[in-house]
Design goal:
single chain; 452 residues; alpha/beta; Rossmann fold; 2 domains; eight-stranded mixed beta sheet; six-stranded mixed beta sheet; 17 strands; 22% strand; globular; disordered N terminus; binds zinc ion
């Protein structure tokens, strides 16, 4: 956890002159229907019937211009917490926009390091950054743009290395990852938590932006056709890594910083609307989110269209886990698999033998080498990025054994959840009898969220 810059004392707001304008733009004399102001003399200008404008602002205030925007609430934006999955070309644009807008807290995740080809498309990266983690460099540059911005760069996989409790505490979730499989992963996370998320993708001249909600209309997976599903699994099909890398290279789309800038701007604008929508008690109707619509821009002979697909029956992308049960005494490094499952059994009123934890992915737990008969424990997601299947003894490829669910009878049940590869502040879905429960390692909250 990193926090850049320290918060400085904010001066008291300068006096703001508010006038009402008629349809022709003429000033209306203050009369009986004068604008109501609160105790500090501040008027709420959010979508009034009349066209009210704040006509003067402090030029020392870098965010003063936003005070003129009808939908922009400085308190909402300055205290807003946004997650951005992906810090590539598109991530650069989106993150840069959030910093310019004065968002209070940004969490950014990416597992990649910067290579030379990234320099053509990424506004935050410099030639001297080649070889460094994308999120680390992006966070440094964003801190220069707004020293008050709290930044949390996470170098890792959004599915396996970030606890679901992190996503649960975000006001807005955005994803600008470049693979179908990672988008599906993010869609499942959002569904589990019952939260909407913003998604964007870029092509050569075209781009798309969508706001998916697991409860309102189609989700990302509802829009997937057979070709997309084939592509989703393609990088994992071959057992040998160079082949998988070659397939990833073949799938690489030609993209430019132009499509990234256009879609990054639209995504950031929708994120800003969603932030107000989520944080305001009574969001104005103008901030109604277009859930389930995908905005597609075709750049050859330019057009923008809103695409609406029908939600698919039995789509797996809408599985809401229900209200999360918080366990303040549980942490990833201090709680064992057995302790977690026994607590779940207690909460579900069943015996520990009756509960099982559904992983939602294949967890490798053991390697066996046919060449030299070596066998050893190894806990890693089967689709994790740095999966290492080499025999630790003779370095030939070993055979992985994996599980999709875990029970109290596992040999490794007394290992800590961190030993098994689970991140801090994780939320687990545990079945028992006819019921299920989502349990969070809430004991990690202080360390992860507040950096304490
Ligand atoms: Zn769906
Ligand atoms: Zn071996």
């Amino acid at each position: 956890m990193t926090e850049f810059g320290d918060s400085t004392e904010v001066d008291e707001d300068p006096p703001i002159v508010v006038v009402a304008l008629d349809e022709d733009g003429n000033e209306i004399e203050e009369g009986e229907d004068a604008l109501e102001v609160d105790a500090d003399g501040v008027a709420d200008l959010t979508f009034q019937e009349r066209d009210y404008r704040r006509l003067s602002y402090d030029s020392d205030d870098r965010f003063a211009i936003y005070k003129l925007m009808a939908h922009f609430r400085e308190d909402v934006v300055r205290s807003g917490r946004i997650f951005c999955a992906g810090a590539g070309a598109l991530g650069n644009e989106v993150l840069k926009n959030f910093a310019l807008l004065g968002v209070g807290e940004l969490w950014l995740a990416d597992f990649d390091d910067i290579d030379r080809s990234n320099l053509a498309k990424s506004v935050l990266f410099r030639p001297t950054d080649v070889g460094r983690p994308k999120v680390e460099v992006a966070a440094e540059r964003l801190a220069l743009m707004d020293p008050e911005l709290k930044l949390v760069p996470l170098s890792g996989d959004i599915r396996y290395d970030v606890g679901l409790g992190v996503y649960r505490r975000m006001d807005v979730l955005t994803s600008v990852v470049d693979s179908i499989d990672a988008r599906v992963g993010f869609n499942r996370i959002a569904a589990a938590l019952g939260k909407p998320w913003l998604d964007a993708g870029i092509g050569e001249l075209s781009w798309r932006v969508a706001c998916w909600s697991p409860t309102d209309g189609p989700c990302y997976e509802c829009t997937m056709d057979d070709a997309m599903r084939y592509q989703q699994h393609l990088p994992y099909a071959p057992s040998c890594a160079p082949m998988a890398e070659a397939i990833r290279d073949m799938q690489r789309q030609p993209t430019s910083p132009l499509a990234a800038a256009m879609s990054g701007a639209m995504l950031a604008q929708e994120a800003l609307k969603l932030l107000h929508y989520e944080r305001m008690d009574e969001p104005p109707p103008e901030l109604e989110m277009p859930f389930g619509q995908q905005f597609y821009f075709g750049g050859a002979s330019p057009y923008l269209e809103a695409q609406i697909r029908r939600p698919l029956d039995d789509c797996p992308g809408h599985d809401y886990w229900g209200e999360v049960h918080e366990e303040p005494g549980f942490t990833a490094s201090g709680t064992t698999l057995r302790e977690l499952l026994e607590r779940a059994a207690e909460l579900l009123s069943v015996t520990p033998q009756q509960v099982s934890m559904r992983l939602g992915f294949d967890l490798v737990y053991e390697l066996y080498c046919h060449s030299c008969s070596w066998r050893g424990e190894y806990f890693y997601p089967r689709r994790g990025l740095h999966l290492d299947l080499n025999c630790r003894q003779c370095h030939n490829e070993a055979r992985p054994d994996y599980k999709r669910a875990l029970r109290v009878t596992e040999r490794f049940a007394d290992r800590s959840l961190a030993d098994l590869g689970f991140p801090k502040l994780q939320i687990f879905l545990i079945y028992g009898g006819k019921d299920r429960i989502a349990i969070e390692l809430t004991g990690d909250e202080d360390e992860v969220i507040r950096g304490g």
